[in-house]
Specification:
Order of helices and strands: HEEHEEEHEHEEHE
CATH superfamily of the largest domain: Protein of unknown function (DUF541), domain 2
Helix content: 25-40%
Strand content: 35-45%
Radius of gyration: 28 Å
Number of helices: 5
CATH class of the largest domain: Alpha Beta
CATH architecture of the largest domain: 2-Layer Sandwich
Largest sheet: 6 strands, antiparallel
Distance between the termini: 49 Å
CATH topology of the largest domain: Alpha-Beta Plaits
Number of strands: 9
Number of domains: 2
Shape: elongated
Amino acid sequence: MKNLLRCLMVFPALLMGAVYAQELDFAHIETTGYGEVTAQPDMAEFTVQVEKLTKTSEQAKQSVDNVVSDFIRHLTEVGISRENIVSGNLSLSPRYRYPKDGEQELVGYRASRRITVSVYALDKLNTILDSALGDGINRVDNIRLKVKDQAGYIQAARMAAIKDAKAKARSLAKGFGMALNGIWSIRYNNVSPRPVLMRSMATEEKIQAAAGYQDAAITIRDQVNVVYRIK
């Protein structure tokens, strides 16, 4: 029975391979087209974290909530829409001290919250980050520089990849004295754009680095594989 099941599992794979090989049993050229566009960031997204350690859970929660409220208020004052501010849920946990001799001792409660902010006017970024430090934010995490019209740049990179695949196919066919005879298959490999990321730095260093966003660039790439029939 085991041998029968093994054969039943292997047979479809062999059949698929045989069918694929049979379908490609004709003269063809396979090309891979690459497309790349470069964009200057025109928006930013960053995350900050507030952490407080106090003797009671109520004090910890209240301290964190006060910092978050002040920070959100300052953000709205400089023109950041409330819909572009996402504040996370409160995390609250006890903290203990473990002496070598004796039982663990409760030293207090740690409360924390994270806030993610999208900034669509980069000239305000430094002011906002400075405000975060003044409001009692403990940590500025990743500062991600992005582009608003990401879909447009992705489309441009895709069209460049298609153009590249076509040019390679025509060049190869001409070089071997043949002609293209239609497309047999297209396999698309999307490459997601990556924002410019600033991390692994002290908070002050991140703020200074953010001031140089004018010199930053985002590279958006795309890729497509095409099999052409030739004659």
